[in-house]
Design goal:
Structural class: mainly alpha
Radius of gyration: 20 Å
Helix content: 55-70%
Distance between the termini: 17 Å
Order of helices and strands: HHHHHHHHHHHH
Strand content: under 5%
Number of helices: 12
CATH superfamily: Formate dehydrogenase/DMSO reductase domain
Number of strands: 0
Number of domains: 1
Largest sheet: none
Shape: globular
CATH class: Mainly Alpha
Length: 313
């Protein structure tokens, strides 16, 4: 029995737990949304702080990934829809109680904003670039003057987007594993960390990587705290939520989650980043890659495991 994302009005992914079909679209959509949110937030943050020169990759170059990530993520979501020709209905109504409505409208503002932000740095990325259209040059000059207000807008929208990637699942109360308020903050922090990992991988500045690594270590600490709090909440809740937690505490997702997500995706990268801060020669692409893979695995595990858990009536 297929769940209809837009037609039925129920804001849940188009998944079928009864047939146990493995879906990649929703995890990829959530992952790329969180990654884009992380990059946008820190680009806006360091712009507001006036550190564009010290944090060039963060402010100027990494944001070029954001429109690509958002478009690919939205395409993945589109592929998952049962009634693809009716996707436009999300943009004809605003439902304040609907996470999917919040997400759709947030993405409608975030995507063009990210494209405009990247376009204002295109001439620096490609020397000799010429728009060849006067109105394009005028618009570029106009938006360059608005970078600070745009940076504030990006920070706010990035937080909404990052939280939304978790709330999209937590709003689905029929699945005990997803029925927790921790998912919103947890997905936000995870997205911020993966965004930083992408920036660190791209950056060639030791100073910039050091600053970002310190922030990332703090975010990993927060993420580990939220994960522990998530399972503590499940184990102190109802029987079905205890059973949901058992999937990760001896059940079929135990190895995948604790080895690939927590240990290789969080603890090891944080340890390597700490060694780097103490002067050890650690190739920064290694912890960055582990964080990126761990973040993707986390979303696959949460989406897949959530489909298994359910209330019995």
């Amino acid at each position: 029995m297929k769940e209809e994302l837009f037609i039925s009005g129920r804001d849940i992914p188009n998944i079928d737990p009864y047939l146990n079909i493995w879906h990649w679209e929703i995890p990829v959509y959530l992952y790329l949304g969180g990654l884009a949110a992380g990059i946008m937030f820190f680009a806006g943050l360091f712009t507001v702080m006036g550190k564009e020169k010290e944090m060039e990759t963060t402010v100027k170059w990494a944001p070029f990934l954001v429109p690509i990530a958002l478009v690919v993520g939205l395409f993945a979501l589109f592929l998952d829809l049962k009634h693809q020709l009716y996707f436009w209905r999300l943009y004809t109504t605003v439902r304040m109680e609907s996470p999917m409505s919040w997400g759709a409208w947030t993405l409608m503002f975030v995507t063009p904003l990210s494209i405009i932000w990247a376009a204002t740095y295109l001439k620096e990325l490609i020397p000799g670039w010429n728009w060849k259209i006067k109105i394009a040059d005028d618009l570029e000059a106009f938006f360059i003057k608005l970078r600070k207000p745009m940076a504030w807008a990006m920070m706010g929208l990035a937080i909404v987007l990052g939280v939304y990637t978790g709330i999209l699942l937590s709003a689905f109360n029929a699945r005990p594993l997803w029925n927790t308020s921790i998912l919103g903050p947890l997905f936000l922090v995870s997205g911020m960390s993966t965004g930083l990992a992408a920036i660190i991988w791209m950056s060639k500045s030791h100073t910039e990587r050091t600053i970002l690594s310190k922030i990332d270590i703090a975010l990993i600490g927060v993420e580990l705290f939220l994960i522990v709090h998530l399972f503590m909440g499940f184990l102190a809740a109802t029987e079905v939520q205890i059973e949901a937690a058992q999937l990760f505490l001896g059940g079929e997702f135990t190895v995948t989650f604790w080895v690939f997500v927590v240990f290789l995706g969080l603890i090891i990268p944080a340890f390597l980043e700490i060694l780097e801060l103490f002067g050890k020669k650690i190739p920064m692409w290694i912890p960055a890659l582990l964080i990126l893979i761990g973040g993707l695995m986390f979303r696959f595990v949460m989406v897949e495991a959530g489909q298994i858990t359910r209330y019995l009536y």
